[in-house]
Amino acid sequence: MPSCCLILLAALWSLMATVSGRILDQEGNPLAGATVTYRYIGAVEKDFQSIPGAMRYETPRMVERGGRTYTVKTDKKGDFTLVGVDYGVYQISIVSKDGHEIYSGKKNIGEPGDPNSQNVLNVDLSTAYGGPQEPGSGTNLAAGKKSKEQLALIREENAHAAKINRLIVRYHAQMGLEDWPGAMTTLQELITLDKQRWEFYQNLGTLQLNQGEYQKASQSFAQAVAVAEKVLVNPTDTDRALTIVADLMLAEADSYEKLGQVDGSVALYDQAAAKHPHPYMAHYRACNVLNNNGQPDAAIAHCDQAVADDPAQWEPHQMMGGIYSTQSKTQDAIAEYEKGVAAAGKMLEQQSDSSRAKIGMGQMLNAQGDLLVKQKKYDEAIAAFTRATESAAYPAMPYFNLCATYYNLKRSQEALAACDHAITSDPRMADAYYIKASILFGQGQVEHGKYAVPPGTTEALNKYLENAPYGDHAAAVKEMINQLNRPLATTYTQPKK
After folding, report:
1. pLDDT tens digit string along 126-142?
2. Which residues contact 366 (CB under 8 A, 6 or more apart)?
3. Is 37 helix (H, G, I), strand (E, B) or coil?
4. What is the pTM (predicted TM-score) of this model?
5. CA atoms of 25 and 185, how far apart (whole Å)
6. Using CA of residue 420, residue 422, residue 424, residue 427, what is the dihedral sign?
7. Are the CB atoms for 94 and 101 separated by under 8 Å?
8. How far is the C-alpha of 397 from the C-alpha of 323, rounded, in Å?
9. What's the gap between Cα 146 and its chain centre?
10. What does the radius of gyration of the chain's CA atoms come to, in whole angstroms?
Protein backbone atom coordinates (compact mmCIF):
# COMPACT_ATOMS: atom_id res chain seq x y z
CA MET A 1 0.00 0.00 0.00
CA PRO A 2 2.72 2.58 0.80
CA SER A 3 4.41 1.86 -2.46
CA CYS A 4 1.11 2.58 -4.27
CA CYS A 5 0.85 5.95 -2.54
CA LEU A 6 4.39 6.82 -3.54
CA ILE A 7 3.62 5.89 -7.12
CA LEU A 8 0.45 8.02 -7.03
CA LEU A 9 2.32 11.03 -5.54
CA ALA A 10 5.03 10.68 -8.14
CA ALA A 11 2.40 10.67 -10.87
CA LEU A 12 0.75 13.79 -9.47
CA TRP A 13 4.09 15.56 -9.03
CA SER A 14 4.93 14.77 -12.62
CA LEU A 15 1.98 17.00 -13.67
CA MET A 16 3.49 19.98 -11.88
CA ALA A 17 6.24 22.30 -13.08
CA THR A 18 8.75 24.72 -11.66
CA VAL A 19 8.35 28.22 -13.08
CA SER A 20 11.15 30.78 -12.86
CA GLY A 21 12.33 34.01 -14.41
CA ARG A 22 14.14 37.30 -14.07
CA ILE A 23 12.70 40.82 -14.35
CA LEU A 24 14.88 43.79 -15.37
CA ASP A 25 13.72 47.42 -15.31
CA GLN A 26 13.93 50.04 -18.05
CA GLU A 27 17.58 50.66 -17.30
CA GLY A 28 18.45 46.97 -17.34
CA ASN A 29 18.75 46.72 -13.55
CA PRO A 30 17.13 43.96 -11.46
CA LEU A 31 13.56 44.87 -10.53
CA ALA A 32 13.24 43.83 -6.88
CA GLY A 33 9.98 43.56 -4.97
CA ALA A 34 7.78 43.18 -8.06
CA THR A 35 4.68 41.00 -7.65
CA VAL A 36 4.47 38.14 -10.18
CA THR A 37 1.05 36.48 -10.49
CA TYR A 38 0.21 33.34 -12.47
CA ARG A 39 -3.55 32.73 -12.79
CA TYR A 40 -4.70 29.42 -14.24
CA ILE A 41 -7.20 30.02 -17.05
CA GLY A 42 -7.32 26.74 -18.96
CA ALA A 43 -5.64 23.66 -20.37
CA VAL A 44 -4.25 22.74 -23.75
CA GLU A 45 -5.88 19.64 -25.22
CA LYS A 46 -4.47 17.88 -28.26
CA ASP A 47 -6.96 16.63 -30.82
CA PHE A 48 -5.32 13.79 -32.67
CA GLN A 49 -6.78 13.24 -36.11
CA SER A 50 -5.82 10.98 -38.96
CA ILE A 51 -6.74 10.78 -42.59
CA PRO A 52 -6.85 7.32 -44.21
CA GLY A 53 -3.61 6.72 -45.99
CA ALA A 54 -1.96 9.79 -44.42
CA MET A 55 -0.05 10.65 -41.25
CA ARG A 56 -1.82 11.35 -38.01
CA TYR A 57 -1.67 15.00 -36.92
CA GLU A 58 -2.76 17.03 -33.94
CA THR A 59 -4.63 20.35 -33.58
CA PRO A 60 -4.01 21.74 -30.06
CA ARG A 61 -6.74 23.92 -28.57
CA MET A 62 -7.22 25.65 -25.22
CA VAL A 63 -10.16 24.71 -23.07
CA GLU A 64 -11.04 27.43 -20.57
CA ARG A 65 -11.16 26.36 -16.94
CA GLY A 66 -10.80 27.92 -13.53
CA GLY A 67 -7.90 27.07 -11.28
CA ARG A 68 -5.30 28.18 -8.79
CA THR A 69 -3.49 31.50 -8.65
CA TYR A 70 0.20 31.59 -7.74
CA THR A 71 1.89 34.76 -6.48
CA VAL A 72 5.53 35.49 -5.68
CA LYS A 73 7.78 38.55 -5.35
CA THR A 74 11.09 39.06 -7.12
CA ASP A 75 14.25 39.07 -5.00
CA LYS A 76 17.09 41.59 -5.02
CA LYS A 77 18.39 40.14 -8.27
CA GLY A 78 14.97 40.41 -9.90
CA ASP A 79 14.58 36.62 -9.85
CA PHE A 80 11.50 34.61 -8.92
CA THR A 81 10.65 30.91 -8.63
CA LEU A 82 7.35 29.08 -8.28
CA VAL A 83 7.41 25.38 -7.41
CA GLY A 84 4.56 22.92 -7.95
CA VAL A 85 2.67 24.82 -10.63
CA ASP A 86 -0.06 22.78 -12.34
CA TYR A 87 0.29 22.30 -16.05
CA GLY A 88 -1.93 24.59 -18.07
CA VAL A 89 -2.34 28.02 -19.62
CA TYR A 90 -1.80 30.98 -17.30
CA GLN A 91 -2.62 34.66 -17.41
CA ILE A 92 0.49 36.38 -16.06
CA SER A 93 0.73 39.84 -14.51
CA ILE A 94 3.79 41.61 -13.14
CA VAL A 95 3.22 44.68 -10.97
CA SER A 96 6.05 46.93 -9.76
CA LYS A 97 6.40 48.08 -6.14
CA ASP A 98 4.69 51.38 -6.97
CA GLY A 99 1.57 49.55 -8.16
CA HIS A 100 2.00 49.85 -11.94
CA GLU A 101 1.50 46.81 -14.15
CA ILE A 102 4.63 46.43 -16.27
CA TYR A 103 3.86 43.13 -17.98
CA SER A 104 0.85 41.02 -18.90
CA GLY A 105 0.54 37.98 -21.09
CA LYS A 106 -0.36 34.31 -21.46
CA LYS A 107 2.05 31.39 -21.13
CA ASN A 108 1.69 27.62 -21.43
CA ILE A 109 3.22 25.76 -18.48
CA GLY A 110 4.01 22.14 -19.19
CA GLU A 111 6.64 19.42 -19.25
CA PRO A 112 10.18 20.84 -19.16
CA GLY A 113 11.20 18.93 -22.27
CA ASP A 114 8.18 19.97 -24.31
CA PRO A 115 9.14 22.67 -26.87
CA ASN A 116 5.69 24.22 -26.40
CA SER A 117 6.25 24.77 -22.68
CA GLN A 118 7.05 28.30 -21.50
CA ASN A 119 8.18 27.65 -17.95
CA VAL A 120 10.85 30.36 -17.94
CA LEU A 121 9.82 34.02 -18.12
CA ASN A 122 12.54 36.61 -18.59
CA VAL A 123 11.32 40.19 -18.99
CA ASP A 124 13.87 42.88 -19.86
CA LEU A 125 12.04 46.21 -19.93
CA SER A 126 15.17 47.93 -21.17
CA THR A 127 14.73 46.14 -24.52
CA ALA A 128 10.93 46.40 -24.61
CA TYR A 129 9.73 48.65 -27.38
CA GLY A 130 6.89 50.82 -26.10
CA GLY A 131 5.00 50.85 -29.36
CA PRO A 132 1.91 48.90 -30.40
CA GLN A 133 1.63 45.26 -29.51
CA GLU A 134 2.68 42.94 -32.29
CA PRO A 135 0.05 40.40 -33.35
CA GLY A 136 0.51 37.05 -31.68
CA SER A 137 3.09 38.26 -29.20
CA GLY A 138 0.99 37.05 -26.29
CA THR A 139 2.08 39.94 -24.05
CA ASN A 140 1.68 43.68 -23.72
CA LEU A 141 5.33 44.08 -24.82
CA ALA A 142 6.14 44.25 -28.51
CA ALA A 143 8.31 41.37 -29.61
CA GLY A 144 10.23 40.39 -32.70
CA LYS A 145 13.91 39.83 -33.36
CA LYS A 146 16.11 42.89 -33.16
CA SER A 147 19.75 43.46 -34.01
CA LYS A 148 22.31 44.29 -31.36
CA GLU A 149 22.32 47.88 -32.57
CA GLN A 150 18.52 48.09 -32.29
CA LEU A 151 18.59 46.61 -28.80
CA ALA A 152 21.28 49.07 -27.72
CA LEU A 153 19.23 51.99 -29.04
CA ILE A 154 16.07 50.74 -27.32
CA ARG A 155 17.99 50.29 -24.04
CA GLU A 156 19.32 53.83 -24.30
CA GLU A 157 15.87 55.27 -25.00
CA ASN A 158 14.27 53.31 -22.17
CA ALA A 159 16.96 54.36 -19.68
CA HIS A 160 16.44 57.96 -20.80
CA ALA A 161 12.67 57.62 -20.31
CA ALA A 162 13.21 56.09 -16.87
CA LYS A 163 15.32 59.10 -15.80
CA ILE A 164 12.64 61.48 -17.05
CA ASN A 165 9.93 59.56 -15.21
CA ARG A 166 11.91 59.69 -11.94
CA LEU A 167 12.40 63.44 -12.33
CA ILE A 168 8.69 63.96 -13.04
CA VAL A 169 7.82 62.08 -9.86
CA ARG A 170 10.29 64.25 -7.95
CA TYR A 171 8.86 67.41 -9.52
CA HIS A 172 5.30 66.55 -8.44
CA ALA A 173 6.51 65.83 -4.90
CA GLN A 174 8.28 69.20 -4.78
CA MET A 175 5.17 70.96 -6.04
CA GLY A 176 3.12 69.27 -3.34
CA LEU A 177 5.58 70.51 -0.72
CA GLU A 178 5.65 74.00 -2.33
CA ASP A 179 9.40 73.67 -2.84
CA TRP A 180 9.47 76.14 -5.71
CA PRO A 181 13.28 76.44 -6.07
CA GLY A 182 13.62 72.66 -6.07
CA ALA A 183 10.82 72.28 -8.61
CA MET A 184 12.48 74.81 -10.92
CA THR A 185 15.81 72.97 -10.68
CA THR A 186 14.07 69.69 -11.54
CA LEU A 187 12.37 71.26 -14.56
CA GLN A 188 15.73 72.52 -15.79
CA GLU A 189 17.08 68.96 -15.51
CA LEU A 190 14.06 67.68 -17.46
CA ILE A 191 14.67 70.25 -20.19
CA THR A 192 18.29 69.10 -20.43
CA LEU A 193 17.08 65.52 -20.97
CA ASP A 194 14.28 66.43 -23.41
CA LYS A 195 14.38 69.77 -25.16
CA GLN A 196 11.34 68.96 -27.28
CA ARG A 197 8.75 69.09 -24.49
CA TRP A 198 7.13 72.51 -24.51
CA GLU A 199 5.29 71.58 -21.29
CA PHE A 200 8.59 71.62 -19.35
CA TYR A 201 9.35 75.18 -20.52
CA GLN A 202 5.78 76.24 -19.76
CA ASN A 203 5.86 74.89 -16.19
CA LEU A 204 9.26 76.46 -15.58
CA GLY A 205 8.06 79.82 -16.88
CA THR A 206 4.95 79.68 -14.69
CA LEU A 207 7.03 79.07 -11.56
CA GLN A 208 9.47 81.83 -12.50
CA LEU A 209 6.59 84.23 -13.09
CA ASN A 210 5.06 83.40 -9.71
CA GLN A 211 8.44 83.89 -8.02
CA GLY A 212 8.95 87.33 -9.58
CA GLU A 213 11.67 86.17 -11.99
CA TYR A 214 9.98 87.94 -14.88
CA GLN A 215 12.93 88.12 -17.28
CA LYS A 216 13.63 84.40 -16.94
CA ALA A 217 9.92 83.65 -17.25
CA SER A 218 9.68 85.57 -20.53
CA GLN A 219 12.62 83.55 -21.90
CA SER A 220 11.11 80.23 -20.79
CA PHE A 221 7.76 81.02 -22.40
CA ALA A 222 9.50 82.16 -25.61
CA GLN A 223 11.30 78.79 -25.73
CA ALA A 224 8.00 77.02 -25.08
CA VAL A 225 6.44 78.87 -28.04
CA ALA A 226 9.35 77.94 -30.33
CA VAL A 227 9.21 74.24 -29.35
CA ALA A 228 5.41 74.06 -29.56
CA GLU A 229 5.38 75.62 -33.03
CA LYS A 230 7.93 73.02 -34.10
CA VAL A 231 6.41 69.85 -32.60
CA LEU A 232 2.81 70.84 -33.39
CA VAL A 233 3.51 71.65 -37.02
CA ASN A 234 1.18 68.89 -38.31
CA PRO A 235 -1.38 68.47 -35.54
CA THR A 236 -4.42 66.22 -35.77
CA ASP A 237 -6.36 68.86 -33.85
CA THR A 238 -5.52 72.22 -35.42
CA ASP A 239 -7.59 74.31 -33.01
CA ARG A 240 -5.94 72.67 -30.00
CA ALA A 241 -2.44 73.24 -31.42
CA LEU A 242 -3.16 76.90 -32.18
CA THR A 243 -4.68 77.34 -28.72
CA ILE A 244 -1.57 75.87 -27.05
CA VAL A 245 0.81 78.15 -28.96
CA ALA A 246 -1.37 81.24 -28.45
CA ASP A 247 -1.77 80.56 -24.72
CA LEU A 248 2.01 80.31 -24.39
CA MET A 249 2.27 83.67 -26.14
CA LEU A 250 -0.20 85.11 -23.64
CA ALA A 251 1.98 83.90 -20.77
CA GLU A 252 5.05 85.44 -22.41
CA ALA A 253 3.13 88.71 -22.84
CA ASP A 254 2.18 88.62 -19.14
CA SER A 255 5.89 88.39 -18.29
CA TYR A 256 6.67 91.44 -20.44
CA GLU A 257 3.86 93.33 -18.72
CA LYS A 258 5.39 92.51 -15.32
CA LEU A 259 8.70 93.86 -16.61
CA GLY A 260 6.98 97.13 -17.49
CA GLN A 261 7.57 96.56 -21.23
CA VAL A 262 4.12 97.65 -22.32
CA ASP A 263 4.75 97.85 -26.07
CA GLY A 264 6.33 94.39 -26.16
CA SER A 265 3.52 92.98 -24.07
CA VAL A 266 0.76 94.43 -26.27
CA ALA A 267 2.56 93.28 -29.43
CA LEU A 268 2.61 89.72 -28.10
CA TYR A 269 -1.05 89.92 -27.09
CA ASP A 270 -1.86 91.00 -30.66
CA GLN A 271 0.18 88.11 -32.08
CA ALA A 272 -1.62 85.68 -29.79
CA ALA A 273 -4.99 87.10 -30.85
CA ALA A 274 -4.09 86.64 -34.52
CA LYS A 275 -3.25 82.96 -33.89
CA HIS A 276 -5.81 82.01 -31.25
CA PRO A 277 -9.06 80.36 -32.40
CA HIS A 278 -10.74 82.31 -29.58
CA PRO A 279 -8.88 85.67 -29.37
CA TYR A 280 -11.10 87.28 -26.71
CA MET A 281 -8.66 86.89 -23.80
CA ALA A 282 -5.69 88.28 -25.76
CA HIS A 283 -7.57 91.46 -26.66
CA TYR A 284 -9.00 91.85 -23.15
CA ARG A 285 -5.58 91.50 -21.48
CA ALA A 286 -4.13 94.05 -23.90
CA CYS A 287 -6.98 96.41 -22.95
CA ASN A 288 -6.17 95.94 -19.27
CA VAL A 289 -2.43 96.56 -19.72
CA LEU A 290 -2.99 99.69 -21.80
CA ASN A 291 -5.52 101.05 -19.30
CA ASN A 292 -3.16 100.44 -16.39
CA ASN A 293 -0.39 102.27 -18.22
CA GLY A 294 -2.24 105.47 -19.11
CA GLN A 295 -3.30 104.69 -22.69
CA PRO A 296 -7.12 104.83 -22.39
CA ASP A 297 -7.95 105.29 -26.08
CA ALA A 298 -5.85 102.29 -27.15
CA ALA A 299 -7.33 100.33 -24.25
CA ILE A 300 -10.88 101.06 -25.41
CA ALA A 301 -9.98 99.93 -28.95
CA HIS A 302 -8.77 96.56 -27.64
CA CYS A 303 -11.76 96.19 -25.33
CA ASP A 304 -14.05 96.84 -28.30
CA GLN A 305 -12.24 94.03 -30.13
CA ALA A 306 -12.71 91.76 -27.12
CA VAL A 307 -16.46 92.47 -27.14
CA ALA A 308 -16.59 91.65 -30.85
CA ASP A 309 -14.70 88.39 -30.18
CA ASP A 310 -17.15 87.26 -27.50
CA PRO A 311 -20.24 89.42 -26.86
CA ALA A 312 -21.24 87.19 -23.93
CA GLN A 313 -18.40 88.49 -21.75
CA TRP A 314 -19.02 91.35 -19.31
CA GLU A 315 -15.47 92.28 -18.19
CA PRO A 316 -14.62 94.54 -21.19
CA HIS A 317 -17.75 96.62 -20.50
CA GLN A 318 -16.71 97.05 -16.86
CA MET A 319 -13.21 98.10 -17.99
CA MET A 320 -14.56 100.65 -20.48
CA GLY A 321 -17.09 101.93 -17.94
CA GLY A 322 -14.21 102.71 -15.59
CA ILE A 323 -12.20 104.42 -18.36
CA TYR A 324 -15.11 106.62 -19.44
CA SER A 325 -15.87 107.47 -15.83
CA THR A 326 -12.27 108.63 -15.29
CA GLN A 327 -12.56 110.75 -18.43
CA SER A 328 -15.79 112.31 -17.02
CA LYS A 329 -17.76 110.80 -19.91
CA THR A 330 -20.54 109.93 -17.53
CA GLN A 331 -23.20 108.92 -20.02
CA ASP A 332 -20.81 106.65 -21.94
CA ALA A 333 -19.73 105.06 -18.66
CA ILE A 334 -23.34 104.43 -17.60
CA ALA A 335 -24.06 102.85 -20.99
CA GLU A 336 -21.09 100.49 -20.73
CA TYR A 337 -22.02 99.46 -17.20
CA GLU A 338 -25.56 98.77 -18.40
CA LYS A 339 -24.21 96.49 -21.17
CA GLY A 340 -21.93 94.76 -18.69
CA VAL A 341 -24.76 94.17 -16.21
CA ALA A 342 -26.89 92.68 -19.00
CA ALA A 343 -24.07 90.34 -20.11
CA ALA A 344 -23.36 89.24 -16.53
CA GLY A 345 -27.08 88.63 -15.99
CA LYS A 346 -27.29 86.36 -19.04
CA MET A 347 -24.22 84.48 -17.86
CA LEU A 348 -25.82 83.95 -14.45
CA GLU A 349 -28.95 82.60 -16.12
CA GLN A 350 -26.82 79.93 -17.78
CA GLN A 351 -24.38 79.42 -14.90
CA SER A 352 -26.10 80.29 -11.66
CA ASP A 353 -22.98 79.35 -9.68
CA SER A 354 -20.73 81.84 -11.49
CA SER A 355 -19.57 83.85 -8.49
CA ARG A 356 -17.29 85.99 -10.64
CA ALA A 357 -20.16 87.17 -12.82
CA LYS A 358 -22.30 87.84 -9.75
CA ILE A 359 -19.57 89.89 -8.07
CA GLY A 360 -18.90 91.79 -11.31
CA MET A 361 -22.57 92.64 -11.61
CA GLY A 362 -22.58 94.06 -8.09
CA GLN A 363 -19.52 96.20 -8.80
CA MET A 364 -20.95 97.58 -12.03
CA LEU A 365 -24.35 98.37 -10.49
CA ASN A 366 -22.71 100.20 -7.60
CA ALA A 367 -20.51 102.21 -9.98
CA GLN A 368 -23.54 102.97 -12.15
CA GLY A 369 -25.45 104.18 -9.08
CA ASP A 370 -22.63 106.59 -8.17
CA LEU A 371 -22.74 108.10 -11.66
CA LEU A 372 -26.54 108.43 -11.58
CA VAL A 373 -26.28 110.30 -8.27
CA LYS A 374 -23.91 112.77 -9.95
CA GLN A 375 -26.56 113.27 -12.63
CA LYS A 376 -29.14 113.76 -9.86
CA LYS A 377 -31.12 110.79 -11.17
CA TYR A 378 -31.81 109.66 -7.65
CA ASP A 379 -34.57 107.15 -8.27
CA GLU A 380 -32.47 105.36 -10.89
CA ALA A 381 -29.46 105.50 -8.55
CA ILE A 382 -31.49 104.00 -5.70
CA ALA A 383 -32.64 101.19 -8.02
CA ALA A 384 -29.03 100.46 -9.07
CA PHE A 385 -27.73 100.44 -5.48
CA THR A 386 -30.61 98.19 -4.39
CA ARG A 387 -29.79 95.65 -7.12
CA ALA A 388 -26.11 95.88 -6.20
CA THR A 389 -26.81 94.80 -2.60
CA GLU A 390 -28.11 91.48 -3.96
CA SER A 391 -24.90 90.49 -5.76
CA ALA A 392 -22.01 92.57 -4.39
CA ALA A 393 -19.09 90.76 -2.78
CA TYR A 394 -19.05 93.62 -0.23
CA PRO A 395 -22.73 94.57 0.17
CA ALA A 396 -21.92 97.10 2.89
CA MET A 397 -20.84 99.55 0.17
CA PRO A 398 -24.08 99.71 -1.87
CA TYR A 399 -26.06 99.70 1.39
CA PHE A 400 -24.03 102.70 2.56
CA ASN A 401 -24.57 104.44 -0.79
CA LEU A 402 -28.30 103.91 -0.32
CA CYS A 403 -27.99 105.29 3.22
CA ALA A 404 -26.16 108.42 2.01
CA THR A 405 -28.53 108.96 -0.93
CA TYR A 406 -31.64 108.70 1.24
CA TYR A 407 -30.01 110.99 3.83
CA ASN A 408 -29.31 113.66 1.23
CA LEU A 409 -32.91 113.36 0.06
CA LYS A 410 -34.04 113.80 3.69
CA ARG A 411 -35.77 110.40 3.64
CA SER A 412 -34.66 109.64 7.19
CA GLN A 413 -36.40 106.34 7.91
CA GLU A 414 -35.19 104.75 4.66
CA ALA A 415 -31.70 106.12 5.36
CA LEU A 416 -31.69 104.61 8.87
CA ALA A 417 -32.76 101.21 7.53
CA ALA A 418 -30.05 101.27 4.85
CA CYS A 419 -27.41 102.35 7.40
CA ASP A 420 -28.38 99.48 9.69
CA HIS A 421 -27.99 97.04 6.78
CA ALA A 422 -24.54 98.49 6.04
CA ILE A 423 -23.52 98.18 9.69
CA THR A 424 -24.79 94.60 9.87
CA SER A 425 -22.75 93.77 6.76
CA ASP A 426 -19.64 95.54 8.06
CA PRO A 427 -19.70 96.49 11.78
CA ARG A 428 -16.53 98.58 11.24
CA MET A 429 -18.01 100.95 8.65
CA ALA A 430 -17.54 104.23 10.51
CA ASP A 431 -19.35 106.52 8.05
CA ALA A 432 -22.55 104.45 8.32
CA TYR A 433 -22.50 105.06 12.11
CA TYR A 434 -21.98 108.78 11.46
CA ILE A 435 -25.01 109.17 9.20
CA LYS A 436 -27.14 107.08 11.55
CA ALA A 437 -26.00 109.17 14.53
CA SER A 438 -26.62 112.41 12.64
CA ILE A 439 -30.19 111.42 11.78
CA LEU A 440 -30.98 110.27 15.32
CA PHE A 441 -29.31 113.33 16.86
CA GLY A 442 -31.44 115.58 14.70
CA GLN A 443 -34.55 113.90 16.09
CA GLY A 444 -33.60 114.82 19.70
CA GLN A 445 -35.50 117.22 22.02
CA VAL A 446 -34.73 119.28 25.10
CA GLU A 447 -35.98 117.57 28.24
CA HIS A 448 -35.34 118.78 31.80
CA GLY A 449 -32.57 121.08 30.67
CA LYS A 450 -30.75 118.47 28.61
CA TYR A 451 -30.79 117.45 24.96
CA ALA A 452 -32.41 114.01 24.84
CA VAL A 453 -31.91 111.79 21.77
CA PRO A 454 -33.58 108.57 20.57
CA PRO A 455 -32.12 105.21 21.65
CA GLY A 456 -29.05 104.15 19.66
CA THR A 457 -27.70 107.66 19.13
CA THR A 458 -24.94 107.52 21.75
CA GLU A 459 -23.96 104.01 20.67
CA ALA A 460 -23.64 105.13 17.03
CA LEU A 461 -21.54 108.16 18.03
CA ASN A 462 -19.19 106.05 20.14
CA LYS A 463 -18.91 103.40 17.42
CA TYR A 464 -17.82 106.04 14.94
CA LEU A 465 -14.99 107.18 17.24
CA GLU A 466 -14.08 103.58 18.00
CA ASN A 467 -13.60 102.77 14.30
CA ALA A 468 -12.37 106.16 13.03
CA PRO A 469 -10.90 108.17 15.97
CA TYR A 470 -9.20 110.52 13.50
CA GLY A 471 -11.83 110.36 10.76
CA ASP A 472 -13.22 113.29 8.79
CA HIS A 473 -16.25 113.51 11.09
CA ALA A 474 -14.48 112.94 14.41
CA ALA A 475 -14.73 116.60 15.50
CA ALA A 476 -18.45 116.79 14.68
CA VAL A 477 -19.10 113.53 16.54
CA LYS A 478 -17.26 114.77 19.65
CA GLU A 479 -19.26 117.98 19.62
CA MET A 480 -22.53 116.02 19.52
CA ILE A 481 -21.35 113.89 22.47
CA ASN A 482 -20.46 117.04 24.43
CA GLN A 483 -23.91 118.49 23.83
CA LEU A 484 -25.45 115.34 25.28
CA ASN A 485 -23.32 115.59 28.43
CA ARG A 486 -23.81 119.26 29.37
CA PRO A 487 -26.92 121.06 30.61
CA LEU A 488 -28.49 123.51 28.24
CA ALA A 489 -28.88 127.15 29.33
CA THR A 490 -32.47 128.36 29.11
CA THR A 491 -33.57 131.89 28.16
CA TYR A 492 -37.00 131.38 29.71
CA THR A 493 -37.93 133.86 32.48
CA GLN A 494 -41.01 133.77 34.61
CA PRO A 495 -43.36 136.63 33.71
CA LYS A 496 -44.01 139.37 36.31
CA LYS A 497 -47.29 139.36 38.10
Report:
1. 776 554 333 334 566 55
2. 384, 385, 388, 392, 397, 398, 401
3. strand
4. 0.69
5. 26
6. negative
7. yes
8. 21
9. 44
10. 40
